Amino acid sequence: MLHERDRIREELFDDVYATPDLSVVLPKYKFPEQEQRARDVYQLVHDELMLDGNSRQNLATFCSTWVDPEIHKLMDECVDKNMIDKDEYPQTAELEGRCVHMLADLWNSPDAANTLGCSTTGSSEAAMLGGMAMKWRWREKMKAMGKSTDKPNMICGPVQICWHKFAKYWDVELREIPMEKDRLIMSPEEVVKRCDENTIGVVPTLGVTYTCDYEPVKEVSEALDKLQADKGWDIPIHVDGASGGFLAPFCDPDLEWDFRLKRVKSINASGHKFGLSPLGVGWVVWRDREDLPDDLIFWVNYLGGNMPTFALNFSRPGGQIVAQYYNFLRLGREGYRKIQLACYDTAAYIADEIEKLGMFDIIYNGRGGIPAVSWSLKEDADPGFSCYDFSDRLRSRGWQVPAYSMPAHREDLVIMRILVRHGVSRDLGQLLITDMKRCIDYFKKNPVTTPLGPEYGGYSHGGGSHK
Ligand SMILES: *Cc1c(COP(=O)(O)O)cnc(C)c1O
């Protein structure tokens, strides 16, 4: 009996926090020498992640922070699928292709069943591909006319950082239209002023990152038609529909921003934003087959079959694409419309409530662009705190609401912004407003002596010294 008890003792595991593994501080920046028990390390990593903000309360992000339980299941089932292995996983490849054609249809491509497009890791990669195709087409056109191809330029409003990357990586001059007073997005006049024969394309954003407004794609397109009639320059449009590409078709179907406009040659959108898929998927679709130069498509034969690839990455997870397909089937136009309209209603509600607080100017009220709200402190308001203080204080209840200054020519304007996404319910919105009131009361009783400024970087530590 006694012998038996000893044997059982030997097989007993320590409580996870009492193990030698977890009762010491583990190395952080040196490659570990020894292996550890999976259970213990799991607990350690899991615990460290507690210090991350709660993603559902992260109102800064445009990206999905809630997905159906079925998506969790599909993601788990696909954890081993590499989407580049199109010959090995032909059905995953098939689902990707179907998504491309469904999107082409959603965006009113004249030949949706036959046009080209692909999935990407997000809108950033999609923007690189769309931008590259514009540069290639422009160069072919210039070469055919015997003209110089040294100085390509691209025109946009206040764009997301990915277009700055595109311009730098691909050596294209970015002619970014600065904000001017209350004009915080591009206007057709400002676009046309900057065009010349070296303009590879114009990129309006459907859902500007800073304010969440839609840029006027149709008006810009018409101005470019007129410019072509005057000067002969045929300048294409690529729409950055990172957010709007999954909003306008459902909630604003009469808005003409897509392939209904002949000049719109390509569109990108983020599947992981209002496409409602988990992180790691974007899309780019061309209006017509001819709009994507053949020269950019690589053919690989070492996966079996002879497969076309057009992407920056090679290996990439397949689950996000499968989840996107699930969403398309699960929701259809009806389901997407319901979810997004609920978000718009909540955004409008939050905007109205913030306005009632009295000290803020609403910059974007959640109507007409992305379901979001942006606001600034009234110029004459003296509430005893800055937007940065307000952001910091909201954090004490877990809410992450960014404060930031605007880009060129309106750096003086500091705004705050929240995104109302799938999973931000009306009730959650109301709780946020209650907490905003609580913060304002707190500042009344405890006025800030040194308001936080732009140097306030929230809680992230980029880099730092790793000892
Ligand atoms: C988010 C965003 C991007 C970048 O997209 P990712 O999917 O994060 O790579 C580009 N443009 C706009 C307008 C965006 O909102």
Task: Quote the CATH topology of the largest domain.
Answer: Aspartate Aminotransferase, domain 2
* DSSP strand tally: 13
Question: What does the average pLDDT come to?
Answer: 93
What are the low-pLDDT stretches, counting only 5+ consecutive residues below 50? 459-467
User: What is the H/E string?
Assistant: HHHHEHEHEHEHEHEEEEHEEHEEH
Name every ligand kind in the structure: pyridoxal-5'-phosphate
Please state the structural category: alpha/beta
Q: What is the overall number of helices?
A: 12
CATH superfamily of the largest domain: Type I PLP-dependent aspartate aminotransferase-like (Major domain)
Spatial arrangement of strands, main beta sheet: 1-7-6-5
* Total domains: 3
Distance, first to last CA:
52 Å
Biggest sheet features = 4 strands, mixed
Q: In CATH terms, what is the architecture of the largest domain?
A: 3-Layer(aba) Sandwich
- Share of β-strand residues: 5-15%
CATH class membership of the largest domain: Alpha Beta
Please estimate the helix content.
25-40%
* Rg (C-alpha, Å): 25 Å
Specify the overall morphology.
Answer: globular
